[in-house]
Design a protein that fits this description.
Blueprint (H helix, E strand, L loop, with lengths): L43 E6 L2 E6 L20 H17 L5 E6 L3 E4 L4 H6 L2 H25 L2 E6 L1 E4 L1 H7 L3 E5 L5 E3 L2 H5 L7 H8 L4 H7 L6 E2 H6 L5 E3 L4 H13 L19 E3 L2 E3 L3 E6 L4 E7 L12 H4 L4 H19 L5 E7 L2 H13 L4 H18 L4 E6 L11 H5 L2 E4 L13 E2 L16 H5 L6 H6 L5 E2 L1 H6 L12 H14 L2 H11 L7 H16 L3 H4 L4 H4 L14
Amino acid sequence: MVASKVPAVAGPDLESMPETTTTPLHSGRDPIDVRTAPDRYRHWRLHVEGRIATLALDVDESGGLAPGYELKLNSYDLGVDIELADAVQRLRFEHPEVAAVVIRSARERVFCAGANIRMLGGSNHAHKVAFCKFTNETRCAIEDASAYSGQRYLCAINGTAAGGGYELAMAADWILLVDDGSSAVSLPEVALLGVLPGTGGLVRLVDKRKVRRDRADFFSTTEEGVRGRRALEWGLVDEIAPSSRFDAAVETRARALAATSDRPRAARGIRLRDLERRIEGERIRYRYVEADIDREMRACRIRIEGPAGASPADIDGLVPAGDAFWPLALAREIEDLILHLRHNEPAIGTLVMASEGDLDAVAAYDAFLLAHRAHWLVREIRLYWKRLLKRIDLTARSLLALVEPGSCFAGFLLELVLAADRGYMLEGPFEDGGAEAVVRLTESNFGCFPGVNGLTRLEARGLDDEEAVSRARRQIGRDLTAADAEAHRLVTFTPDDIDWEDEVRIALEERAAFSPDALTGLEASLRCPGPETMESRIFGRLTAWQNWIFQRPNAVGERGALTLYGTGARADFDRKRV
């Protein structure tokens, strides 16, 4: 990809563009598509009744994302979790009246056996890592809904919850386990498979549920798990109930959780329609996002288009706009693109973000979101941007941002520049004249969108200077040129027109020449400086360990535990500690 001026082109005519597909990540498997809807779910049943929604897991054993395994005992693969993520998102936007969500199994005596082991054994390493990351993000989205959206989650474990099944339960506010003498919770991955619980189980045990370290050690190294009274005493669950009173206990607890919510009872939700996406050769098009893949440079140039019209005059215009409201539509398109590239384009290692549009129009939308932040739908849109930006932070791709004349990076959209590993902003106009590039800070950049470390992206850039954020705050509302932006730590380099294309090209060529493994480790280490949180531990420390362990012979070698699972043969471990 060669850096160039962003052309002034009209939005794509989606109706006239043929739907094509990209190259499958794995031989013999269709590309992964995260777009779905309740009428297409194969594994979850969503039922809403008043203030309470129920998500019942009823996995279609033959409905795996790829051939070669059956999803027995309510075990899951990425396809199951794609549906769960969609349901969590829809409950937030389509059902403002829902104040509590019950996750349970539609099967008798089994809740969830966790990630399907045959799937893990047959998947390549890249897919396993992407699967674990997406599943982690979904669990964090559940916790985000509980903490900030007023949708409290209850997990009703009506049977065995093993591995990822118990990890799903730990994402909820409250865990209720049936006390029937046989149902148990367990994290058997170390004892059974030679790997770790991959979706935050170890971290949530001690950070969230405050389970004693010695008890957590025992619990995480025993296959059979812990039942009933001991599970309650150890803090592995919050409540137990016999089979005869289990359903009544679930309803009572769900109503109690709903009573703590501020969700509006009479508000009308908005429908999230299927995203329109077209793939033509190496170009991916949405309404407001266009991406061009350069395979030689192993990069993807992403152009974001600003709003086509003005923001609503008042809050009454928001709900009728529905999912066409520009900040919401844009967030959905960027997220779909990020996930499409993650799951289907592993060789594309660098994402280059650029924008084009009216800076004042973007700032007006940002001001609208700030002015109406107490409205339930505005709150959801802002929280969606927070989650999207975290997903971008955690994407194992190099991130470059280009700020050129005609860019519209202001407020929440400027966060994409602040999330980049490097930001390049043109100093002065291009040679053929015209305006200079400018960016604009707003109040949104000072607390609305913290990263997984709990800091804003500006705070993360100012760890060496306590006054840096205060100085930047004084620039709110000003159009900042390249010199201003560099002075306030918003961009990394400010080449002029003579050097612009060469500097960006060299950066892309360097990125393409480095080891992708080394870059992933480098970027993950640098993107979340400062304090550590439960979330940063899950995505940093735990994911790094799991990534390494999944490649070790003790897990996936010819005599590894994951390879031999179900054969009756015992794993032959290399006993050396590394």
